[in-house]
Amino acid sequence: MQTTTRVAVIGGGVVGCSVLYHLTKLGWSDVMLLERSELTSGSTWHAAGGFHTLNGDTNMAALQGYTIRLYKELEEITGMSCGLHHVGGVTLADNQDRFDMLLAERAKHRFMGLETEIVTPEEIRKIAPITNTDGIIGALYDPLDGHLDPSGTTHAYAKAARMAGAAIETHCMVTETNQRQDGSWDVVTDKGTIHAEHVVNAGGLWAREVAAMAGLYLPLHPMEHQYIVTDTIPEIEARDGEHPHVMDPAGESYLRQEGRGLCIGFYEQPCKPWAVDGTPWDFGHELLPDNFEKITDSIEFAYKRFPALATAGVKSVIHGPFTFAPDGNPLVGPVPGLRNYWSACGVMAGFSQGGGVGLTLAQWMIEGEPERDVFAMDVARFGDWVSPGYTRPKVIENYQKRFSVAYPNEELPAARPNRTTPMFDIFSDLGAVWGQQYGLEVVNYFAQGTEPEYETPSFRRSDAFGATGREVRAVREAVGINEIHNFGKYLVKGPAARGWLDRIMAGRIPGPGRVSLTPMLSPQGRLIGDFTVSCLDETAFQLTASYGAQAYHMRWFQKHQDDDVTIENISDKRNGFQIAGPNARAVLAACAGGEVANMNFMDVRHSTLGMTDCIVQRISYTGDLGYEIYCDPMAQRQLWWTLWTAGQPHGIVPFGMRAMMSLRLDKFFGSWLSEFSPDYTAAETGLDRFISFRKNVEFIGRSAAEAERDMPPARCLAAFEVDAKDADVNAYEPIWLDGEVVGFCTSGGYSHHTGKSIAQGFLPRHRIADGREVEIEILGEMRKARVISIPLFDADGARMRG
Ligand SMILES: Cc1cc2nc3c(=O)[nH]c(=O)nc-3n(C[C@H](O)[C@H](O)[C@H](O)COP(=O)(O)OP(=O)(O)OC[C@H]3O[C@@H](n4cnc5c(N)ncnc54)[C@H](O)[C@@H]3O)c2cc1C
Fold it and tell me: Please, are residues 16 and 9 in contact by the beta-carbon 8 Å criterion?
């Protein structure tokens, strides 16, 4: 066995083998995979082998599309068979909401180049004749759906990697991973120690145990899962071709042909977590005992949907465990806080996602960044606040909701409230309807009078519409207050702080007492942050960005950290409020005096409000006259009473995130992971206006940004006024022009201030012109829309800056 390697991949399931193959594909051949038993000795060997592209997250869907297309390539390279059955599949909809979801998916697929189709019940009966379509509205047909041989596919990945120089060591159990001073790893196995520059945890069912060897907790948990294979079924035997897959979300089942019978699996409600205290090392080649009790209801439902099943004998039952993260997406990428340690874990659909996970990780390791926004599966989307006590109920919830309609405005209840600020009970008393962001309770809106205390999930305008409109009007006409707890906040200090910020951020770093906005770029010029930088003094800067990107941003900062600079994540250590609206100045003046209230737009000051020492800056994401006021959370309730009392004569009203997202639309302000994400560049999104090409610093991404300045991008962000009906743009709706899809939306919503439906999205640059008519496909309906370039509120900035 070799004793040094550039990369040690731990785990020879489909994911580990895919990572190994992709590392070689992208040019690293000194790589090694360590498997404690034979390849496929975890959840991989008992998978049903189904694959599909459908995924609520667009980038995940694209990576699933990549995975499926890869199998042919693997077969060609290795001469091995993956046992591919490209039979196509339908996902049924038995109610309007589910159908809306499929319509939205179909619309997204148009610009992703996926040839899915909406089909009628009659067409379903032709495509998948064993389906009883009573009560079915329609379905999404995907010609790419299919299944394969899990073992053959895993071995094909392994062979392709070996052919390119990778080593695979089976019967080699990793028992320790110890980091050296220089960041490399000693990987201790029962066959000896291997010195590796990088470690990849692809431990699947044992990922938790492998992570613990590096002192790490990964938020994932195994669940038991069962599928049944029937004896021969006459209706199947009589067919010429293979029966396609049928996903029946109402019955929480997936079905496909196996031999001359059927194979059906369930995501049952009475589901069971497995190996709560850890996965035993001697588990691997056995199945779990059959458990028909937990799937009795599911089977009964399936008999009605697929009557041919009712008389079929059971040939075999496969009952095994596999792992899930709290939101069901994989945990991929460099683990924050650990050098050269990479995660390829929590992959619950290895045959839909394994290829994309391998490609992403290999790009990240070799090229420094993945080619697209992969935040939906980035291991950094969870912070160090996750614990087994949080993960388990979330994983159960995710399993149970695997086939549920996923609404854009849905707030999932499990493991909540988890993290709360000192305002939780005060806001609850004011009628707060809570949402959740990065584990933190965040107010969506405040219900008053007869307004609903629970927002019903919907693809259309929800029942929070009235409350949101009321809060928006309060901000625009008087003054609103909300908490700034869901900003990620960082304190950058030290004599070299300015120099470091100048290198990390593309924009101008402000002088003392001033605030600036700046994009943060990757070397390839992708947007990896949109920051507000406040210069508290020459050696202390406060940065704010998205709350959910804390671990993501800290990972980047630490990777590029210099001596003489300290970077502290103070997201939960500094809190406070923002007040916004025409009366905001008067409220602040009543608490802090006129000098602070009259400070200029983009100024920052230390000030005492009532008894509380604060940092006050004049800036507001509402686009209105506004201030952000930061304090120690221990003093936050005191600050609240100061502002709340001072605000009473001025009509102060609390507002939540729903109103905030409506207000920002009036000014076409972008939002992180919608308009601004690593999928886009600064010039594409207009953030290039904040890049300082004049500063004499080689900031990260400079040459890419300069190249874009010299040759403007093909597509750019635009704003649209939409003739919507009862549903506004959410994200990724296709934009049509002259009968073809030319772009897609990034976000949208209802501007309560103007009574207009607004969208933002990408169009080819040369086709953006004020007033240009386009069509946007919202839930299957073409809605007329027009490009608009003048903000709907305070177009000259008089109120915001005045
Ligand atoms: C019943 C069932 C049906 C399924 N059906 C489908 C389906 O239709 N389609 C689909 O896409 N997915 C399906 N899945 C899920 C699929 O099986 C998983 O997504 C996939 O197997 C995950 O692969 P992995 O490589 O991450 O993990 P695993 O397969 O668990 O592999 C991990 C490997 O790491 C090795 N290992 C662990 N620790 C060490 C160590 N310390 N040293 C050395 N080696 C170590 C293990 O021996 C194992 O081989 C199903 C799962 C189940 C249980």
Answer: yes
Determine which helix (DSSP H) or strand (DSSP E) holds 446, and give its type and residue range.
strand 440-446
Q: Is the pLDDT of residue 56 over 90?
A: no
Q: Closest residue (by CA) to atom 2 of ligand 1? A: 47
For residue 282 the two structure tokens come to 């001697």
| Residue 71, both tokens | 């199998």
pLDDT score at 595: 87
Question: What are the C-alpha distances in Å from 531 to residues 273, 538, 612, 671?
Answer: 40, 18, 26, 11
Q: What distance in angstroms lies between residue 753's CA and the mean position of ligand 1's atoms?
A: 51
> Ligand 1: which residue has its CA nearest to atom 25?
13
**C-beta of residue 762 within 8 angstroms of C-beta of residue 750:** no
Q: Does residue 189's CB lie within 6 angstroms of at least one atom of ligand 1?
A: no
Residue 110 pLDDT > 90: no
SS3 53: coil
Q: Does ligand 1 come within 6 angstroms of the Cβ of 656?
A: no
8 A C-beta contact, residue 158 and residue 39: yes
C-alpha 202 to ligand 1 mean position (Å): 9
Q: What are phi and psi of 233, to 5 degrees?
A: -115, 125
Q: Which amino acid belongs to residue 670? A: G
Task: State in Å: Cα 103 to ligand 1 middle.
Answer: 32
- Radius of gyration of the chain from its Cα atoms, rounded to whole angstroms: 27
Which of 439, 391, 446 lies closest to 571 in space, CA to CA? 439
The answer for residues whose C-beta is within 8 angstroms of residue 572's C-beta and 6 or more apart is: 419, 485, 633
Looking at residue 7, its pLDDT comes to: 98
What is the chain's mean pLDDT, rounded? 96
**Rounded CA gap, 399 and 485, in Å?**
30
Q: How far apart are CA 324 and CA 760, in angstroms?
A: 33
Nearest residue (by CA) to ligand 1, atom 50, is: 47
Cβ atoms of 666 and 620 within 8 Å: the answer is: no
CA 711 to centroid of ligand 1, rounded, Å = 46
Q: What's the CA-to-centroid distance between 46 and ligand 1, angstroms?
A: 8
- Pocket-testing residue among 21, 52, 191, 205, ligand 1, by greatest number of atoms within 8 A of Cβ: 205
Classify strands 440-446 and 479-483 as parallel, antiparallel or unpaired: unpaired
**What amino acid occupies position 588?**
L
Q: Which residues pair with 592 in a beta bridge?
A: none
pTM: 0.97
Compute, in angstroms, the gap from residue 651 CA to the centroid of ligand 1.
58
The 10 Å CB-count burial string (b at 16+, else e) for 685-719 is: bebbebbbeebebebbbbebbeebeeeebebbbbb
Q: Is 245 in the pocket of ligand 1 (CB under 6 A)?
A: no
Of residues 284 and 4, which shows the higher confidence score?
4
